[in-house]
């Protein structure tokens, strides 16, 4: 079995939150789908609520304190991400955006990212297309074709095997295939010298 | 080892009184602070360069020349001189001039400047910060070492048969430090030339400084200037001291909480844990400063930021006295006893002049 890492970013505020609920279902399905392809996914969940103060401090000071640094390092080293946000005022939550604002430049480049969102009503579902997709496209992530939206209706008593289940499985399968066909993620060291002095002068 | 202070020349409201010094007052205060630093037994005064409010120091060599005239031993430096937006020709002229007036008590620290809007005011682009620093310093280095310069580059009009005047004092260019917090290219540049590397160690975790200094030392050796532990390293720092550490914390907290750069963010306790900021007793400052050596090795220059965030002049002068009486004498002794003999001191005009004469004799022999 190949070993790969999956980091799940959840930015729900209440506990328990439907955002975390969706995040857990996506992660569990991804683990199952990956196992069927011979990949063991090691999952780490990052609850942004726990890092809210450190995220703000990072914005003001320019560096991350230990818990946030650990989360940022995990993201940089991850083979894939699942990112889940509640819809606030017709977009991702400010906390969700802030986490990506203080992330080191380029760490998401070509990293498989599954996007997901939750809201009270299905009328917000296009937030995935008009807010999250441009954000992760800008960050040059390898966005999975299927993104997952869950409204309150989807958590209803009669929807356990409903349409949401199908979307989760489809997205999880895409993520598993993407992780399976790729080399393990490599982390670039921001303090490493990439060219020597003579080359820097040559390439001015 | 050299100990001193640096000022970024901010004009900040004192949060405990609501009073903001005028530019006129603050400029005179800086002169008082520099003179007091010498009287208190410190070695270096370094002044920043800014071209935007709330800072006053747009022309550091003017201020430093005025201070030079009123001091006798104080080494005058900058923190930093903008190598990106200044014309390197003007830097060559200004600092050679200052060097003559100050009898050689001059070095300078180059920095790129991180204030985006300033670049276009000088016809430059912040995205070209590193290339500007590389090309401009290449020219500055040449102007101080070659009498007649022909030069062509990307960012400045070409030079034909140009001689920068006055020539450096005794034909010994001022020593140059390259300051950077997290750009490995600048550590590489400093190493390539065998110049000093200054890590402004405040506001940032020690792990950044450790990586940058480590890279600089390794590349210094690679370029054949000496062994890695002979590279010339300087650190910035920030302290606030009172006899009882609780008094220091209580007095400094409002200045910390409202300070430009880090104010309204992390708590004082968090920040002192995560960065080299030390607020406490003189002994705590001594212990913390000695600890820097454990991750950067034996280093040559320690500068502290003292007059920041609206602290009144009286308080700043008291802080200089504490440094001079209780902290620096102990640090001098401790650092000296730890430093191996083959690790050099920070270069001065006298030491560079002596080194050149030695080299000449070697060539003749």
From TrEMBL, chain A:
Keyword list, A-Z: Flavoprotein, FMN, Oxidoreductase
Gene3D superfamilies named among the record's database cross-references: 3.40.50.360
Keyword presence, rRNA-binding: no
InterPro entries linked: CE1759_FMN_reduct, Flavoprotein-like_sf, FMN_Rdtase-like_dom, NAD(P)H-dep_FMN_reductase
Domain NADPH-dependent FMN reductase-like intervals: 6-155
Top-level class of the enzyme under EC nomenclature: oxidoreductase
MF terms in GO: FMN reductase (NADPH) activity
EC code(s) of this entry: 1.5.1.38
Keyword Ion transport part of the UniProt annotation: no
Pfam hit, one: FMN_red
PANTHER family: FMN REDUCTASE (NADPH)
Protein name stated in the entry: FMN reductase
UniProtKB/TrEMBL annotation, chain B:
Matches recorded under Pfam families: Bac_luciferase
Annotated ranges, domain Luciferase-like: 1-295
Keyword Oxidoreductase appears in the UniProt entry: yes
Alphabetical UniProt keywords: Monooxygenase, Oxidoreductase
Gene3D superfamilies: Luciferase-like domain (3.20.20.30)
GO MF terms, alphabetically ordered: monooxygenase activity; oxidoreductase activity, acting on paired donors, with incorporation or reduction of molecular oxygen
Highest taxon of the lineage: Bacteria
Cellular component aspect of the GO annotation: cytosol
Coiled-coil stretches noted in the UniProt entry, renumbered to this chain: none
NCBIfam families in alphabetical order: LLM_CE1758_fam (TIGR04036)
Name of the protein in its database record: Putative FMN-dependent luciferase-like monooxygenase
The organism's taxonomic lineage, starting at the top: Bacteria, Bacillati, Actinomycetota, Actinomycetes, Micromonosporales
């Amino acid at each position: 079995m190949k070993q790969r890492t999956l980091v799940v970013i959840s930015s729900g505020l209440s506990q328990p939150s439907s955002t975390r609920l969706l995040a857990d279902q996506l992660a569990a399905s991804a683990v199952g789908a990956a196992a069927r392809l011979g990949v063991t996914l090691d999952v780490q969940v990052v609850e942004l609520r726990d890092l809210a103060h450190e995220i703000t401090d990072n914005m003001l000071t320019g560096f991350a304190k230990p818990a946030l640094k650990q989360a940022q390092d995990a993201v940089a080293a991850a083979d894939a991400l699942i990112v889940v946000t509640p819809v606030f005022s017709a977009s991702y939550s400010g906390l969700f955006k802030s986490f990506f604002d203080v992330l080191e430049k380029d760490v998401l480049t070509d990293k498989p990212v599954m996007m997901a969102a939750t809201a009270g009503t299905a009328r917000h579902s296009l937030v995935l297309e008009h807010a999250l997709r441009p954000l992760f496209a800008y960050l040059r992530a390898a966005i999975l074709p299927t993104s997952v939206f869950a409204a309150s209706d989807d958590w209803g008593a009669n929807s356990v095997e409903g349409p949401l289940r199908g979307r989760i499985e489809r997205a999880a399968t895409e993520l598993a295939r993407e992780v399976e066909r790729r080399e393990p993620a490599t982390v670039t060291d921001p303090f490493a010298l990439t060219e020597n002095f003579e080359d820097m002068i040559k390439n001015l | 080892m050299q100990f001193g202070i640096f000022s970024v020349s901010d004009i900040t409201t004192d949060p405990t009184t609501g009073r903001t010094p005028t530019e006129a007052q603050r400029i005179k205060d800086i002169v008082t602070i520099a003179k007091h630093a010498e009287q208190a037994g410190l070695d270096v005064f370094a002044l920043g360069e800014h071209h935007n409010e709330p800072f006053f120091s747009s022309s550091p060599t003017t201020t430093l020349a005025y201070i030079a005239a009123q001091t006798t031993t104080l080494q005058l430096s900058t923190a930093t001189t903008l190598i990106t937006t200044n014309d390197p020709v003007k830097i060559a002229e200004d600092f050679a001039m200052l060097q003559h007036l100050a009898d050689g008590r001059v070095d300078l620290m180059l920095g790129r400047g991180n204030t985006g809007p300033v670049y276009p005011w000088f016809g430059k682009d912040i995205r070209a910060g590193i290339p500007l620093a590389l090309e401009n310093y290449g020219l500055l280095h040449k102007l101080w070492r070659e009498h007649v310069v022909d030069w062509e580059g990307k960012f400045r009009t070409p030079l034909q048969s140009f001689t920068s005047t006055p020539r450096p004092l005794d034909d010994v260019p001022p020593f140059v430090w390259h300051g950077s917090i997290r750009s490995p290219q600048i550590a590489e540049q400093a190493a390539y030339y065998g110049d000093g590397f200054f890590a402004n160690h405040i506001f940032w975790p020690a792990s950044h400084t450790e990586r940058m200094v480590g890279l600089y030392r390794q590349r210094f050796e690679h370029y054949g200037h000496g062994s890695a532990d002979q590279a010339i390293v300087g650190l910035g720092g920030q302290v606030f001291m009172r006899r009882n550490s609780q008094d220091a914390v209580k007095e400094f907290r409002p200045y910390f909480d409202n300070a430009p750069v880090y104010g309204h963010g992390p708590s004082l306790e968090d920040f002192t844990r995560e960065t080299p900021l030390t607020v406490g007793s003189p002994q705590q400052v001594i212990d913390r400063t000695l600890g820097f050596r454990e991750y950067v090795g034996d280093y040559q220059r320690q500068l502290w930021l003292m007059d920041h965030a609206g602290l009144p002049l009286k308080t700043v002068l008291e802080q200089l006295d504490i440094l001079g009486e209780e902290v620096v004498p102990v640090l001098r002794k401790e650092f000296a006893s730890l430093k191996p003999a083959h690790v050099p001191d920070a270069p001065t005009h006298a030491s560079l002049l002596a080194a050149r004469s030695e080299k000449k004799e070697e060539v003749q022999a």
